[in-house]
Amino acid sequence: MEITYYGQSCFLFRIGEHQVLFDPFISPNELASAINVDEIKADYILLSHGHQDHVHDAERIAKNNNSTIVATFEIAAWFGNKGVEKTHPMNTGGKVTLPFGTVKMVNAIHSSSLPDGSYAGSAAGFVVETENKAFYFAGDTALTFDMKLIPEQFDLDFALLPIGDNFTMDIHDAMVAADFVQVDKVIGMHYDTFPYIQIDKDEVKEVAQMADKELILMEIGQTINL
């Protein structure tokens, strides 16, 4: 499984012949200025909630690629009204089988509204199960006991967790979340983009090491294989 990081909480997963993009916020992000949004190819775009720093480039990329946007009913409808032709509405607790695997929408503790102030439903995370791997994309969330339900249904290989604090979990809560979902490998996200969420990378790595977790902090534009 190939993973490319585009900053904030935006990751592109290449799963077999399919390309799955999460939470595209690229063009306004000064840290991602080297990324050409129009070169990004995506078959599916999964949106965890409606905030601008997670959906800003979704319409542009979807229209460029005829992508399917997968999101809460409210977000899917909002993008449909903006001319995105292919959407798949979901809600918390629901699961859908797509060509690359199954996607389950799970609870996240966070607010959610769209850039124009429209109601965006509840914030969510996703558990994606493919032929060879299963992973948890937490979205923006606080630490919650609901995470303990995930390993009762899925055997996860890794998790993508927010670590920037202020709007989401910090590294300490993220390490507890990793225990809750029973993973030893964590990809950090939602940090450094804004002053509110700047982190000390040496400090968070030390916290992860003390928790006996492998913390991966990807560079923007970097691609790894897991």
From TrEMBL:
InterPro entries according to UniProt: Metallo-B-lactamas, RibonucZ/Hydroxyglut_hydro, UPF0173, UPF0173_UPF0282_UlaG_hydrolase
Top-level taxon of the source organism: Bacteria
A Pfam family this chain is assigned to: Lactamase_B_2
UniProt xrefs under SUPFAM superfamilies: Metallo-hydrolase/oxidoreductase (SSF56281)
Span of domain Metallo-beta-lactamase: 7-190
Keywords recorded for this protein, A-Z: Hydrolase
A GO term for molecular function: hydrolase activity
Family named by the database record: Belongs to the UPF0173 family.
Listed NCBIfam families: PRK00685.1 (NF001911)
HAMAP family noted in UniProt: UPF0173
Name this polypeptide is given: UPF0173 metal-dependent hydrolase SAMN06296052_10887
Organism: Pontibacter ummariensis
